[in-house]
Amino acid sequence: MPFYLRMGTVPRKRHQVTRSENGELIAEELMGKEGFAAESALIYHLGMPTAIVEAETLLSGDDELVPNTPLLPRHLVTPKLTSQLADGPLRRHLLLGNSDVRLSYAIYQEPTPLYRNAVGDECLFVQSGKGRIETVFGLLEVREKDYVIIPASCTYRIVPDHDRGLELLVIEAHGHIEFPARYLSKRGQLLESAPFSERDLRTPSELCIVEATDVEVLVKTRAALTRYVYAQHPFDVIGWDGCLYPFVFNMEDFEPIVKRFHAPPPVHQTFEGPGFVICSFAPRPFDFDPESVPVPYNHANIDSDEVLFYVDGDFMSRKGSGIEAGSISLHPAGFIHGPQPGSVEAALGKPGTKEWAVMVDTFAPLELGRVASEIEDPNYPWSWSKRHGGTSIEV
Ligand SMILES: [Fe+2]
């Protein structure tokens, strides 16, 4: 996130003596990536951001993963999840993960604890509901189809709307989530050829100035979850500036790229992180040659496991397989996958697709979270085969 922003009150010079209205020194915090060698922000606190008064280790309760054996495509039905099933203080259902990235689903009716992830950036995709994300940088109002990018070490909490709640696909990186380098100029501006621009990004609308004492914050590291109690609230911020902050991009602002014949998923890429990419499938006209095949070909992803989270709309290529809104499919490396039998002919002559989906391709094999087996459709691996009751689309 390279463009410069400033909110609230910051001193004229960096690292300059600054006092509050009652004469107390303001505490400056530098939050920076890659040591001091990449983007950073300077945050100005009324109290000391370092003052912890308690610390204890918590079990996260959600970190069990088992290998995907026998190697099978999987269909996880997130509408079967309930908030009661979730483990751990963050109430996330871990579904899939490897050493690079973890995918969880969260259903919130109540605010989460204050939390920060010291392992890497998080991408929260809003599947349903609305609410707000309160961060040390300020407030983000969120709605359906928002991607919310939270930088590593940014303290935040999620506050769902009282009536509608909030359901999220949570993508946790082991490192930083960035825009694809090919979308950016040498100095970080989104290029004309990118499928979105800076105007599509929403940044914090106002500071969440809170003054309180003895405030609990959960911190995730590679080793464990730690519960700190801070002497003062981390949101005692009067201002900040820099090129590192949380932001929101709504999938409806993604401008799809369409070709005469089928375009592969990289044209839908939106973000990338170490060992994975995130793509957005948005409604678009089908390939426009009269002889083009509108649905994807069968394919073997030699170097990646492919996850699709079906958000909304009509999922033409997997119609008849049980896939519906809220479904997550995993098509792992080593398994050749493709459209549902009959879907090619069914799609011929159709003007376009109304599908909304998030794709996460990982470059290392994904393992399965404990809850995955509880919401898995056992028929899905056989859905391409008539012998096992797989269905074909009527033309
Ligand atoms: Fe695929």
Please tag this protein with its features.
1 helix, 38% strand, 1% helix, binds fe (ii) ion, 9-stranded antiparallel sheet, mainly beta, 28 strands, 395 residues, Jelly Rolls, globular, 2 domains
Q: Looking at this structure, what is the CATH superfamily of the largest domain?
A: Jelly Rolls
Give the count of structural domains: 2
Order of secondary-structure elements: EEEEEEEEEEEEEEEEEEEEEEEEEHEEE
CATH class of the largest domain: Mainly Beta
Number of helices: 1
Task: Kindly report how far apart the N and C termini lie.
Answer: 47 Å
Strand order of the largest sheet: 5-28-7-8-15-10-13-20-16
Question: Are any ligands bound, and if so which?
Answer: fe (ii) ion
CATH architecture of the largest domain: Sandwich
Shape: globular
Number of strands: 28
What is the radius of gyration computed over CA atoms, rounded to a whole number of angstroms? 22 Å
